[in-house]
Amino acid sequence: MEEKMDVAKVQSQVLEAVSRLPSRDADTISRLHSDLLDVTQLYEQFTDPLGLWECKLAILHCANHYDSALVTSIWQNIINAEVKKLGNADTETKLAALSSKMKTLGRTYAQSEQFFPLDFLVKTLETYSVRWNGPPGWVVSIMLTAGVSFQRLFAVYNRLYGAKDVVWQAEGKPNHLLKVLADMLNRLVDSSTGGLAALVPTADRRALIGQCVEAVGVFFYGSLLHDSRHITCPHSRIPHSTRQVRTYL
Questions:
Q1: Domain, as residue range, for 2
Q2: Start and end of every Nucleoporin Nup133/Nup155-like C-terminal domain (predicted)?
């Protein structure tokens, strides 16, 4: 019974999405209204041919059907569709709209790691942050609001920074991730927002602090390297944040 209710919810989502299409078909809407379909029918007969990306993700999640490449492709199309819809809007509107979309979807999927490819999503959103001149904490705020833990997010940014992807150089912001990481460290010591106590459960704090202290040397020397190439970098904020973080040990 519970499984049928879950499928019915997904079908309702599909019906709503189909009803919003400019080329909506009366027979299609009537069928979705009158028959309770299974997830295979919903996927193959409606969401796939109509390009209903959010509904496709909902079906995979409902069926607990995991395909890494497919899930990543769906998320890419969800983001592409949102960006295309925004057209020539100003950057503030774009940042707000994409943030809202990702927070809404994140609240549904962030705790299901298979259906919320965090590394991919963070990198993709940070690319848009660079293009739209978003603040350093834009993506981090999205993910924290969506329910991603600070420690999981910090690990993702560590991996991204370590990968030395050429995308940041290509976008003209080679030190972008350093600024984001500096912002993350500052969040831990910002007493006005609760700092570490507000972001990390007590049981996880010591491990996270150790990771921060270990990683910060890499960030610091990385920022010095960028400075040697005459690029303004946030390295002056990193040691200060580290000293403050150490006080929690």
A1: 1-65
A2: 1-215
